[in-house]
TrEMBL record:
Keywords: NADP, Oxidoreductase. The keyword NADP applies. This is NAD(P)-binding protein. Belongs to the short-chain dehydrogenases/reductases (SDR) family. The keyword NADP applies.
Amino acid sequence: MVKFNPTQDLNDLSGKVVIVTGANTGIGYSTVKHLANRGAKVYLGSRTEKKGKDAVEKLKGPLGIVGKGDVVFLPCDLGSPASAKQAAEDFLKLENRLDVLINNAACTYDKTEAPAQDGISEMMMVNHFGTFQFTSTLFPLLKKTSEEKGSDVRIVTLSSALHLKTLGAKDKTLFNSMDEFRNFYVKTSIPTLSRYNSSKFANLLFSNALQRRLTAESSDIICISLHPGIVNTSVAGRMPFPLNRITGFLMSTLALTPDQGAYNSCFAAASPLVRKSADKYKGAYLMPVGRIVQPAVNTKDVGMQDALWETTETYLKQSASK
């Protein structure tokens, strides 16, 4: 583990533009705060306008950011491909550079009987399809920024150690079709957790596939996926009784605070160590804080990465044509 404190060990981010999705509370909120404290202009992505604007107001208040950075609300709903694309396009109208994208937003609990769209679970729609669409739409600007002298562009995607529990992880054909995205795991003891695990496996495949494509183009962009740690966020509030009580108790007694949970994201996004050892960190999976570990073996499988990419792109094209 790297000794790291975001108040002391981050690059000066003055002049840098950052997006953090799902940032009105929890890990995302703390990530915004730390990066803005180091001088960045951070766009705080939130699905809910009131919650997003309230978070920005709080960060700009006397107990919020203390540095010379800025925080701007960005409407960002990853609940459908169309809304994810719209959020990215709205940003593109505001800025001519993007130095760091942190894919923090995640659905942590959904209902088996309530698919998001086209039979796809809400978990997969937000955590994978929305994130993929949002990133893809912003990619030309990320690439353009990376071509500037002295740039340090990074794409950070939050996964989870629970990706290791994905039930179909050993099946290399898992994402060859849309079946897994519509798999509600109704026969498992906690279906929503099984769906979450699979979505986090998809996040790792996506990050690794994107890095592989960038490296083939000799791009300097660094893609990192990570586990933030076990963090006491508002996840328990969405769960049914008694799961909410059990989860809430465990979180409050054993978990990291959101501020601590943001450390790994901040390290990946802005630690000078990452750029100094860029080849080591490209495509890396980090445990807190800044510790490179091996994820599930098949997340490095090129065939699985390509299958996920192709299946996703095919669906997004079909969705856009409706």
